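Researcher: Last one for today. Full complex below.
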Amino acid sequence: MKIQVLGTGCSRCNMLEANVRAAVAESGSNAVVEKVTDLDMMMDLGVMVTPALAVDGKVVSAGKVLTKEQVLSIIKE
Amino acid sequence: MAECNCGCGQKTNLIYACSGAANTGFLADQVARGLMKDGTGSMTCLAAVGAELSGFVASARGADSNIVIDGCAVGCGAGIFERLGLPYTQFVVTDYGVKKGKTEITGEVIEEVKNAIKGALCNG
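Model: Here's the assembly. Have a good evening.
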């Protein structure tokens, strides 16, 4: 599984990234977490609101700082 | 730390236009572009939401407001948002005295409709 955190590096983006990394660690998943700061890549994915989260290329959330628990439930789906 | 420029924490208004084949679709498109130029929000692709592309749908769900500008009472834009259960505010350009298939779309018409919608947004 590939999880992408999309955002340019502000505090909300960093909070989401931290929550994602904590959720992956807790789940024992072998998911790869990638931080995407490239605006062109965000536009290619249709992301107009950050921070956003994509799982295996599908954007599952935008404009929200998901909690660790919310990310865990996404990982388990 | 670099200055944040991602828009996080700012109000995000997304603007969608019908962009249909008729004169009113052209007007809706031009009004949306005018609103974006004026700083009302960011224009994004209605067709991509209709195609249920994940990034566009998630952005619509996460935006503070979605402004849908339809060309006529057929309301394709609003229909897309209804079908997907997304929140939106609809404007229809024929509500501003424009006749589908008849009114010539001039710069003046674009400006008039844009300002009327802008006023409605400010007072809404």
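The two ends of chain B are 38 Å apart (CA to CA). The interface with chain A takes residues 1-2, 4-9, 12, 14, 42, 44-45, 48, 53-59, 61-63 of chain B (CB under 8 Å).
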